[in-house]
Amino acid sequence: RPPRPPVKCxxxxxxxxxxxxxxxxxxxxxxxxxxxxxxxxxxxxxxxxAKQKKQKVKVVSGFSHTxxxxxxxxSPPETSVVISTAKYNKNISVDVKNLRVTADxxxxxxxxxxxxxxxxxxxxxxxxxxGVSLGGLISTGSHGSSWWGKGGSVHDHLVGISLVVVAGASxxxxxxxxxxxxDPLFNAARVSLGxxxxxxxxxxxxxxxxxxxxxxxxxxxxxLENEFLxxxxxxxxxxxxxxxSQKTAVFRNDDRVPLNTSGDGINDFLGFQLTPTIASxxxxxxxxxxxxxxxxxxKCTLAAxxxxxxKLVGNGLKNNKVLFTGYPVVGxxxxxxxxxxxxxxxxxxxxxxxxWDPRIxxxxxxxxxxxxxxxxxxxxxxxxxxxxxxxxxxFCGLDIYNGxxxxxxxxxxxxxxxxxxxxxxxxxxxxxxxxxxxxxAQDVWEEVEQMAFFKYRAKPHWAKNRIVAFIGxxxxxxxxxxxxxxxxxxxxQGMFSSEISDEVLLGLGxxxxxxxxxxxxxxxxxxxxxxxxxxxxxxxxxxxxKEARVCRDSSVSTF
Length: 559
Ligand SMILES: Cc1cc2nc3c(=O)[nH]c(=O)nc-3n(C[C@H](O)[C@H](O)[C@H](O)COP(=O)(O)OP(=O)(O)OC[C@H]3O[C@@H](n4cnc5c(N)ncnc54)[C@H](O)[C@@H]3O)c2cc1C
Ligand SMILES: O=C1O[C@H]([C@@H](O)CO)C(O)=C1O
Description:
Layout: E1 7-9, E2 14-16, E3 29-31, E4 33-35, H1 40-52, E5 56-60, E6 80-84, E7 92-95, E8 100-104, H2 109-118, E9 121-122, H3 134-139, E10 158-166, E11 174-180, H4 186-189, E12 198-205, E13 207-208, E14 211-220, H5 224-234, E15 239-243, E16 248-257, E17 266-267, E18 275-276, H6 277-292, H7 296-312, E19 317-318, E20 329-332, H8 333-336, E21 352-353, E22 365-373, H9 374-390, H10 396-399, E23 404-409, E24 422-430, H11 442-455, E25 459-460, H12 480-490, H13 499-505, E26 537-541, E27 549-553
Parallel strand pairs: 4-6, 5-6
Antiparallel strand pairs: 1-2, 2-3, 7-8, 8-12, 9-13, 10-11, 10-12, 14-16, 14-20, 15-16, 15-23, 17-19, 18-21, 22-24, 22-25, 23-24, 26-27
Helix pairs in contact: 5-9, 9-11
């Protein structure tokens, strides 16, 4: 079954959720209504109506694949409305001569890519997951991986954007403005987290169609900190997957090759494949039982099995669309850059879905993504290795997912983009059904999280992360003030802002620290009560990054 829609309405109000089904604070987002405009004029009318009713407005796509609660307009529900772009996805027009494509913001990434490739052109970057809308993916600075050309961030290939902004009565309370690359507001609008306006049209620059040639090289991680820079400079779409508990780093040699190169392969990334529901439930059940038995060894066995299987099947790469038969895998850009086959299954197929689908007891995890200025990343790796060498089993929980996924993002002019060439690192780890349930090695994850965001001042990916990652975020962007000025200019009454999304944008979520708040990254502990003393989890300093404050299982001896 494909993912379910993120919005559920009963008579009087609607609940807006995300793809994982649970927000970081585990509280529902309630709104008075959700509107489904289908044309740009209907989009404008929806904004005008909300302005006249003095409502708070947020935009959600048909996918809602963002983790932080950016799409929640706040309380009380009666005064808020959500505009969904799920049905605003009709128009895609490819301009072959000028190597451009313009589309409605609700269009899904896969639909756009297929149309562009049909026309013999290619969109260079994209997130690795295709289950996103064009408006949504640029709004959070979503990216693939590249330090070449315009780089791996999609918003750096945007050359025009149309916004529905609030207006006075004389202009019908809402109007459409078109911004091109040289507009002063353009750098605010292209990564705007839904805080300035509703994006109605996006225009991307394209390139003549090309193919990709991918080879995964499995290496020992001993020299990782000395090798990542060279790897990114040598291969246009390079990334690295580091499995710290196994001391293995998988260097993805990934380059563009001409269209006439032989090969019709695809990238059907394993993690995004249609997964038999029983498999997802099975993995989740075994994780849960290992957690309850504090079975580190079991986690490491599962991790080794997972990574062994991934190596065997090329992590989902297929040479002939069906099977992985060996490297290199060569295929069309449109079939290699992004994937998400679990999206394309029939409603009646109840036996398989995306592994994290909240309708089944499948995978349930945190997703942290830290974006480092390139010069700082080396020291982060060295610190994580120190932490890993203290007790490698602590890192098996990570390797059950994707380990550390290391990707490359180029400096951007976008105010909320990266101001310098950067390295993004994703890591997923087990999340318990209940907020207060202690998790194996959670102190290690909290230390890695705090090391990244506070010791190395990495920026949190706007679409991922637990709320603690956003503490002090506004100080990390040199042009943050310019973004706030643009927000004041385009939305003086703060119609698109809310105290809930301000916790992300302005890192304001820390006024009160409640009992147990540190157990899910809702605060950084400063007292034991912020952890779970009844279960022996107490607030302690980090082992390598001493300034970190983490919830550690006091029943096990530290080193
Ligand atoms: C399985 C998975 C894999 C992922 N892989 C990657 C990856 O490889 N790289 C990466 O960088 N990210 C990745 N992401 C994150 C994803 O790219 C972002 O969450 C993206 O923003 C989701 O797009 P969406 O259409 O679901 O937007 P939503 O989640 O619906 O919205 C995101 C934000 O954009 C705003 N917004 C949406 N549409 C509009 C509009 N038309 N006008 C104004 N504001 C709007 C919303 O208000 C919100 O603030 C992944 C996410 C998942 C779940
Ligand atoms: O869930 C996600 O998957 C990708 C990456 O971790 C694997 O492709 C990504 O960036 C996510 O947020």
